[in-house]
Amino acid sequence: MASGNIIKVALVDDQLLVRSGFRMLINSQPDMEVIAEAGNGREALATPSLQQADVILMDVRMPEMDGIQTTERLLDPAKKAADGPKVIVLTTFDMDEYALSAIQAGASGFLLKDAPPEELLESVRTVNRGDAVIAPSTTRRLLNHMAPILKRSVAQADNSLMSAVESLTPREREVFGLIAEGQSNPEIAEGLFLSEATVKTHVGHILAKLGARDRVQAVVIAYQTGVVSP
C-alpha cells in the first residue's frame, strides 16, 4: 500500500504491555502504522512526532496528566484544524462523564479498552475518515447528558456559527439534524431513501460549511445553535 494511504497512529498509555499489544495489532494491518508512543500526558505533549499522527489512541487514566487534559492541550482551539490529529479516548470504564469530558475536550471518539480488536481497528479507520466513534452503549446516554449542558451555551453561539448553519441547504439541514441524533450514514440513507454515497457527500458538505472536524463536533454545534433541542 502506498505510504500516503497509511494511517499514522500514536499511542498514549502508561501501561507498556497495553501499548505493546496495541502496537502489534495496529502494525499487523496493511493500512496502519504506529509512528509515536508516550507513557503519560506530559510525555505526549513533549513528543513532536505525536502531532504528525492521523489518529491518537489516548488512555483516559494516566499519572501526571490524564487523557482528557492531554487531549484538551493537544487540540486547543488554535490547533483544531481539520487536518490535525484526531483522538480516540480509551478507558476501562463505561462511564458517561468520561465520554462527555472527552468529547468536550475535542476527542473524535470514545471506546472501551476491552472492545474487540476488530472494533478498535475499525474505529481508527472510521475516525480517520472524519466520522465519530462512541461506544454504542454510551451514545444515547451521552447525548442525553450533553443536551442540557450544550443548551446553556446556545445563547453564546457566535454569529458566524449561526450563519454557517443557515448556509446549509434544506437537505443538508435535514441530514445535520439526523447526525445530531446519533444516526449513522446507513441509517440516514435508509430513512431519507438516499444512497450511502449521497449521504456521505452531504455530510462532507455539512462539516465543511460548519468548519467542524468531525461528526462529534457537528453534534455539539447542532445543540449550541438550537438545531436540536433536548
Automatic annotation (TrEMBL):
The modification 4-aspartylphosphate is found at residue 59. Coiled coil: none annotated. Residues 8-128 form the Response regulatory domain. InterPro entries: CheY-like_superfamily, NreC/VraR/RcsB-like_REC, Sig_transdc_resp-reg_C-effctor, Sig_transdc_resp-reg_receiver, Tscrpt_reg_LuxR_C, WalR-like. Keywords: DNA-binding, Phosphoprotein, Transcription, Transcription regulation. The keyword Phosphoprotein applies. GO terms for molecular function: DNA binding. Residues 161-226 form the HTH luxR-type domain. This is DNA-binding NarL/FixJ family response regulator. The lineage of its organism: Bacteria, Bacillati, Actinomycetota, Actinomycetes, Micrococcales.
